[in-house]
């Protein structure tokens, strides 16, 4: 029997530039302290199976379950001629689906990394990224690639569709508050909604995309110099722009308001919007009290320090 192989990858938040990154701007994203783990072992049932603690589903059945994981695993088995192999893929994830926190990217990466290694195939980052992107596409339509880059590399990245990811060096850690609104949404339909807005105001949209690039470069400066008031201000402006393109909701606006009122330098929706999550940059001495206050109504709320590690193979 082959030894089981397990890998884990973090979720992510987008600090600035979501949506605009699809249209060519720079964006900044960071790995967070919630992870997804996949373990691959030989299946003793004679057929391949995917399971979590809640449910199980045959790998080659299209039942709408584990869509990203199945796409990645099947593509790898097809590519390497191992379709006859019986494997068991066990998923355990701390990242809620549809929360905008990179759940599909994290499971796609952990699946690609663990399965490639299990089969003794090329498991360098390029090959992992190639297969993981297929899982992301299955869920997101036409993603910019920022989620896969952030979750695979870890840390904080400056990302652009043309130039890819550059790590942002950090002298000291910073702390972010993350709050999941509880409302799941589909990234694909929000990305389409933004394209509609762009059609109505093409010139303004183009300039706003350029502005978001400059803003993301300023965010990198604020991060590396540890300038929290400036970082918070830039997050606030980014949120106003996301609101203008129509991806915020009353609930997200209220969460952002509350995080600001309780003592943050700034806050914004993160990811595709329409639901999902917000991030806030709390004043350091108030971080725990803001979490306590918001966490009473929004159970999936947590603090994460940045940077966090990317893909790891588990012992
Ligand atoms: O994965 P989400 O839902 O956090 O959103 C990804 C960010 C978008 O810019 C909206 C889409 C993309 O592919 O870049």
In whole angstroms, how far apart are the ends? 17 Å
User: Tell me, what's the shape?
Assistant: globular
Q: Identify the bound ligands.
A: (3R)-3-hydroxy-3-methyl-5-(phosphonooxy)pentanoic acid
The largest sheet is: 8 strands, mixed
Count of individual helical segments: 9
Find the structural class using helix and strand composition: alpha+beta
In which range does the helix fraction lie? Answer: 40-55%
Task: List the secondary-structure elements in sequence, H or E.
Answer: EEEEHEHHHEEEHHHHEEHEE
Low-confidence stretches: none
Q: Please tell me the overall pLDDT.
A: 95
How many strands?
A: 12
Tell me what portion of residues adopts beta-strand conformation: 25-35%
Rg computed from alpha carbons, rounded to a whole number of angstroms: 19 Å
Explained architecture:
The chain has 315 residues and is of the alpha+beta class. 41% of the residues lie in helices and 25% in strands. The protein has nine helices and twelve strands. It has helices at residues 67-79, 103-118, 125-140, 146-153, 187-200, 202-225, 228-244, 250-261, 287-295; strands at 5-16, 27-42, 49-51, 56-58, 87-93, 156-160, 164-167, 174-180, 264-270, 277-282, 301-306, 312-314. The strands form two sheets. Strands 1, 2, 3, 4, 5, 6, 7 and 12 form an eight-stranded mixed β-sheet that branches. The protein has a four-stranded antiparallel β-sheet with strand order 9-10-8-11. Helix 5 (187-200) crosses helix 6 (202-225). The longest helix has 24 residues, at 202-225. It is globular and about 55 Å long. The chain starts with a strand and ends with a strand.
């Amino acid at each position: 029997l082959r030894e089981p192989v397990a890998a884990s990858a973090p979720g992510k938040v987008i600090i600035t530039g979501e949506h605009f990154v699809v249209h060519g701007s720079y964006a900044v994203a960071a790995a967070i302290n919630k992870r997804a783990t996949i373990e691959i072992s030989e299946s003793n049932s004679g057929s391949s199976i995917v399971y979590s603690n809640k449910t199980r589903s045959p790998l080659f059945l299209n039942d709408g379950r584990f869509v990203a994981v199945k796409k990645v695993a099947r593509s790898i088995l097809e590519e390497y001629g191992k379709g006859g192999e019986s494997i068991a893929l066990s998923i355990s994830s701390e990242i809620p689906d549809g929360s905008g926190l990179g759940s599909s990217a994290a499971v796609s990466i952990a699946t690609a990394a663990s399965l490639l290694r299990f089969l003794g195939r090329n498991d360098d980052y390029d090959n992992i990224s190639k297969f993981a992107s297929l899982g992301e596409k299955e869920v997101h339509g036409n993603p910019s690639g920022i989620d896969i880059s952030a979750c695979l590399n870890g840390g904080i990245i400056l990302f652009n569709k043309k130039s890819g990811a550059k790590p942002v060096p950090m002298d000291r850690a910073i702390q972010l508050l993350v709050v999941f609104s509880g409302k799941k949404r589909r990234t694909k339909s929000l990305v389409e909604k933004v394209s509609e807005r762009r059609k109505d105001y093409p010139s303004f949209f183009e300039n706003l995309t350029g502005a978001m690039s400059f803003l993301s470069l300023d965010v990198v400066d604020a991060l590396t110099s540890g300038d929290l008031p400036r970082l918070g201000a830039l997050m606030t402006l980014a949120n106003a722009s996301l609101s203008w393109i129509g991806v915020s909701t009353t609930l997200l606006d209220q969460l952002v308001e509350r995080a600001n009122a309780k003592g943050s330098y700034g806050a914004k929706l993160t990811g595709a919007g329409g639901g999902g999550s917000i991030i806030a940059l709390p004043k350091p001495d108030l971080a725990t009290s803001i979490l306590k206050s918001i966490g009473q109504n929004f159970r999936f709320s947590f603090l994460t320090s940045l940077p966090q590690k990317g893909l790891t193979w588990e012992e």
